[in-house]
Amino acid sequence: MKLVVRSGEREEQVEVVRRGDGFVVTVGDAAHEVDAAALGDGLSSLRIDGAQHAVAVYPVPVHGGDGHGGLYRVSLSAVLPPQEVEVLDPLTHLARKSRGGDAAGGRQQVRAMMPGLVKEVLVEEGAEVTAGQGVVVLEAMKMENEIVAEAAGVVSKIFVATGEHVDGGEPLFEVE
Amino acid sequence: MSELRPIRKVLVANRGEIAVRVLRGLADLGIRSAVIYSEPDRRSLAVQLADEAYPIGPAPSAQSYLRGDAIVELARRIGADAIHPGYGFLSERASFARQCRDGGVIFIGPPPEAIDAMGSKTESRRLMMDAGVPVVPGGAEPLADLAAAHEEAVRVGYPVMIKAAAGGGGKGMRRVDEATELPSAFRAARSEAAASFGDDAVYIEKFIVEPRHVEIQVLGDEHGRVVSLNERECSLQRRHQKVVEEAPSPVVGPELRRRMGEAAVAAAEAVGYTNAGTVEFLLDESGEFFFLEMNTRLQVEHPVTELVTGIDLVTWQLRIARGEALPEWMEHVEPRGHAVEVRLYAEDPYRGFAPSPGVIRHLRLPEGPGVRNDCGVYSGGEVTVHYDPMLAKLICWGEDRPQALTRLRRALGELRVEGIQTTVPLFRALLDDADFLAGRMDIAMLDRKLAAGELQPPEGATAVTTDNPDLPLVAAALAHWEEAHRRTAGAGDAAARLRARWRRVGRREALRMPR
Questions:
Q1: Is B297 part of the annotated catalytic residue set?
Q2: Which of A17, A96, B78, B224 is the most buried (most CB within 10 A)?
Q3: Which fold does the domain B9-108 belong to in CATH?
Q4: Inter-CA distances, B334 with A136, B62, B231, Å
Q5: What is the pLDDT of residues B178-212, one digit of tens each?
Q6: Which fold, B337-436?
Q7: ipTM > 0.90 (yes/no)
C-alpha cells in the first residue's frame, strides 16, 4: 500500500508491505521492519527495528464528511501532546478534506493508486453513477482493478482513455 | 481512657479522588461507607468503591453536592454516624458543620466556630496578632496624609506596597522600595484609587518580595492537643491554583521548621481547632514568615505529608472524631525523605489550559517503588465539565529530593492518558527546568515562566524515542492499512464488496505469475 503521509512540515512517501506476520514500512528512503500487536483501546505495541513503542492512534472525525478523511491523532506518551498525522491514500480514494476547499462541493477527484494501464473506461463523461459503481478499469500489480465512484453523482470529467499508461497519483476521473 | 464515640457508618459528601481517598480510610478502619453521587457520577470510581451509594441530584453542584440540608437528612435516614466533607464543596461552610451538629451527625472536621473565625480575614488577622503569630505587617486603616504614610512605611519596613482601601485588582497599588520613592507613589496610588473606586483612601502593607507559599499541617484532638506535622512547599501555582507541591520545603531547615510549627499550633489553638487543618504562610527570602490564612479542612496535597511522616491523615481524622487522643510522639515528628506531588488536570497546558473533557479511552497509572496514585477516574470513564477538572494526583517519594524527582520522571513516562489532554507535559518540562531542579521557586514563578513561553514539551518523538522520528508516520500508516483491510475483509458479502473501494475483476491468464 502506497501512501502519502504528512505531519507538521514533513511529507513523506510511505509504503506499507505485509511480510509474514509483520510489515516492512518504508518512509521516504528508510525501510523499517515493524511488528504490531494490538493492546486494545486504540493502543498498539509497535516494534520498529527492535525498539518497542506503545502508541495510541485515533481517527480524527472531520465534520461534513463520512469517516475521517485520513486524519489521525497519534499519541506516543503522556508527556507529549499528541500529533496530527494525515494519511493520503489513493487506493481507497480518500479525498483530502481541505478546510473549505473542493470537498465542500462534494467533488471527488479519483487518482491512480499506482502506475498502470487503463484497460477500459466503463462510462462516458456526463453519466450518472451510483456509489460503488465502476468507472475505469486499471491494470496494475498483475491484477485488474475496477476503480469506483465513492459516492453517487455525475462523472464530470474523465482524464484517461483505454490503452493509456498512467503514473501513480495521476487523476483518472472526477465525480460531482 | 475515655469512652470513644462509636462511628460505624460514614457518609462521604464529596466526589472524585478525595471521595475515593476517604473511602479507603473508612475501609482501613472497618467503617461502613456511603457516598452521594450526582447523575453524571453514577458510574464514578467512588461509587464503585463505596458500600452504599445514594443519588443526590443532577449535575450542577448547587443542586447536588452543595445541598447541605439534603445531605444531613440523608445521613440521618441511612443511619450514618458521621459525614466526611472532603475538600471544596461544603467542607469550609460553618453553616453545614452546624447543620450536622444540630442533626446529631458528627462532622469530620473542626468546630463551626473555628471555621467561622478563620473564614474572616479581619477576625483571623486580629486573632493571630493576639496569639503572637506573625502577620503581614501593615494595616487596613487608610492613611491620612503623606506624613502618616512615611511613618507607617518605616514602621513596617521597606519595601512596602501601597494598596487601595476600596478595591483591588491591582488598581491603586504601588510598590515602593525606599523612602525617596514614597511621595510620588503615594500621590499616584491615591489618584488611581479615586479614579477606579471613587475613593482615594490607601493603606500600607509590607511588600514581601517573591515569597514562597509554605504551609504547616496541623492535627488537633478533642483533648486539647494540637500538633504540627511540618511543612509543605506549595509555591508552584498557576493563577493562584497549586499544581505541584512537595514536602519538606527545600529551604526550610530544622530551626525554621520548629518556629513555623509553633506558630501554626498557636494559630490553631487560638481558634480552638480540632481535627485536620493547614496554616498557610508566606515565607520571604530572609526566612521571615507571615500568616496568610488557615484552611479548616483536609487539603488536596495532604499525601506529601503522609509520605514523609508515615501518618495516615484521613484515618486520624476519623479517629479524632471518635474521641481518640493524639499520641505524644506526634509532637516530635520529623520528615523522612522527600515527596513531590503533581496534579493531573484535564486541561491542555499549551492551549491556555483550556478544559479537555471527554472519555478517557485508556489510562495506565504508573506504579513501583516510591509511586503513589490518588486517582478518581478510570479507563473508559468520562470527564465532564461540571466539576473541577482535577483527575488524579501522582505523588513520588524518595530518600531525598533528587530521588523523588527521578522517580517522578519515571512515573510520568510510564503514565498513559488517552482521549483527553492533561497537564502532564507541563510537569515533564518542569523536570528539565533549572530553577525547579534547584528548588528555587516563588509564588509567581510558574506564571512568569508560562508567560515567557518556557516549559514547552520536549521536541516531538525524539524526546521519547531517542532514535526514531519516523515513529508517528509509521503508526498512522499502519493504522490506516489496518482500517483499509478491515473494510475490504468482508469479500464474501455482496454489500461489503460494493462498499469496498476497489474490486479485483479477475486475473488474466497471461498475467499469472510463473510458479
A1: yes
A2: A96
A3: Rossmann fold (3.40.50)
A4: 81, 41, 10
A5: 999 999 999 999 999 898 888 888 889 899 988 99
A6: D-amino Acid Aminotransferase; Chain A, domain 1 (3.30.470)
A7: no
